[in-house]
Amino acid sequence: MTPAAPITPAMLTTADGRPLKAALAAAQARSKRRALFLVLPLLLFVVISFVIPIGQMLQRSFYHDGFSKSAPALQAWFAENPLGTEPDEAAYAALVADLALMQETRAAGDAGTRINYTLPGARSLYTSAARGAKKLEPPFKEALLAEDAKWADPRLWVAMRSAASPWTADFYMIAADLQLAADGGVERAPETQRVYVALYIKTIFLAALITGICLLLAFPIAHLLATLPMAKANLLLILVLLPFWTSLLVRTTSWIVLLQDQGVINSFLVYLGAIGDDGRLRMIYNQTGTIIVMVHILLPFMVLPLYSVMRVIPPSYARAARSLGATSWTTFRRIYLPQTLPGIGAGALLVFILAVGYYITPALVGGADGMLYSNMISFHMNKANWSMAAALATLLLLGVLVLYWLYDRLVGIDNLKLG
Amino acid sequence: MAAAAEGDAYVAFDHVQKSYDGVSLVVKDLNLSIAKGEFLTMLGPSGSGKTTCLMMLAGFETATHGEIRLDGRNINLVPPHKRGIGMVFQNYALFPHMTVGENLSFPLEVRGMGKDERETRIKRALDMVQMGAFASRRPAQLSGGQQQRIALARALVFDPALVLMDEPLGALDKQLREHMQFEIKHLHERLGITVVYVTHDQGEALTMSDRVAVFNDGRIQQLAPPADLYERPENSFVAQFIGENNKLPGTVEELSQGKALVRLATGELIDATPVNVTEKGQKTLVSIRPERVEFKPEMMPAGAHTIGAEVLEVIYMGDILRARLRVAGSDDFVIKMRNTLGQTKLDRGQKINVGWHPQDARALDPS
User: Fold this and answer.
1) Which residue, A23, A33, A71, B59, is the most exposed by fewest CB within 10 angstroms?
2) Which intervals hold domain ABC transporter (chain B) (predicted)?
């Protein structure tokens, strides 16, 4: 009955004098090797198909050598002259030399594209100037400016200085709705171009909203499943799982059939006379559509962890609480709900993480204002702007990791129960 | 304690029936009165309806028919949290997300009790079960026996007059179980509470109770103090369920002045006390406790019929010796002998005569 006194272990040894820890490690080494051998195929698969490609992808978010690899002369000039130095004749000479090199290696397009990311509209400068670079005579400054006065733009030189190093934070800067100022500092992007931060916040908000709706809908379902007799519960569980066995595209498309302007729901409401033919509700190709369809698709991910937690809560806890004098509401709030927290945590984390990175559904039913962050990532990928896509993906990953950390601090990750 | 008269019963089941599926009855016409301060045990095999009765009393099941009264008030429609009945569950049902102290505080909080009073009561309840030092532990950090005590303290902390216990000692090992039986018994005596205790362990029922209700097939088979139950079972179910029991089937040959002469299937005649046989020629089952069988001629009552037996095996059990005999064609007739210095030793294959006082052999229904 009294708590055991803490034992302070002296250095224990085996009968033949070896330290006990070493003997234990030796005895377990064999089974550890065997265990490693068993997981080796999966480990290799994960490393080759997951860690390496994703690592490379993420690396692109801060590494881009499109300009730096064909601008050695400019690199040298930037290294000698600190930020704020007015580009002199030597700078222009370096620029012309690099343009000539670009022409030779056919890299003017790549280099121009890299500058174009931070200074939109700059790409054509490089492609056209590179073509005639070899024929240019000193003084190069006048010669280039004669070709195009934009070469004197201090923003261009700031952009080139930044791009002259393959390691760059430019893409994160853009993702934060910032841009390079003429003096080499950082300033906010013009209001019409600020899209990323707002989209990030909106994505987090929508994912949280979807998680909340899923929780509200899933909690009673899971409770019903957990309290029904096994045979009936299994039947209902199949209904919950049924969407899993149907193609995501089919499910999303059937929502389009239901929700669109000429769709089932609108036509039915018009038939009932609840709305006029010209007042059909807009339920799809906007934010509403994204929320409705994503809640439906992610609901099972909330139901299953909740169900697995609720199923093992013995009904005697609720009975005990009732017999001790608690009303059914108090019993739910103080006894049942706290015990379902691991399931709520797991389900919410799962749904939130899935929702934050969801792509197909918002792409199909989101319209313009139902777009999520992943649609922006996809947009940049389609335009082969890997670095920008990678930067956005990294920011999304960081956001999720921060939430995960918060969750661990507040609830404790060992309280998570996924099934 | 004498059976409570219908009028002053503290708890009363009045023609209570319960069906779960509308096809069969789990509890068939239950009538039971429990006096204030009584320790009543519902004993029976699983599925006999005893737990259902307890759940109806606690309010977790509703009676299909009949009336349950608590202190003279019909409580059929009173929800469980308003009945004020303490309950100890089989698996203790301590709330795992609360400490021991919070577990005990819960029933006081929902009653809106102030903090000071709560703390006094929690301390008193924990001291009562000798667990005063454990208030800040979580249930998972306690052993089974300790959890049991906490469950008991929680059921008593709000001073209920009636406490229900649903096989509370089922999960404990034998030694701890016997120890807790005495503790619960002593708590009951000290606090003067009424206890309704459900168990399938007859030893537990006999040790602790004022009265035992033996359940089978949805009915109370016998309701009596432990000694009556063991020594004077009213039917063959009770005789077989409580304690060890030798059964000899036969036919009533003579019936006079509270004595019966029974002819066994193999032709022998034995003495018995008629319990639920009423006429000659009736089939019967004679029940004799193993420790009441005599085999030494000097101990037999004068004029008693004896019957030949062959020793099949003798098992040494420490405090007693247990011999299995072949009697009247049956191989499972058991006798028990105290392991004393001068005890006669029986050997395998030995032929002996066994007999008994007629009042120890009870002629019951032939089921």
Assistant:
1) A33
2) 11-242
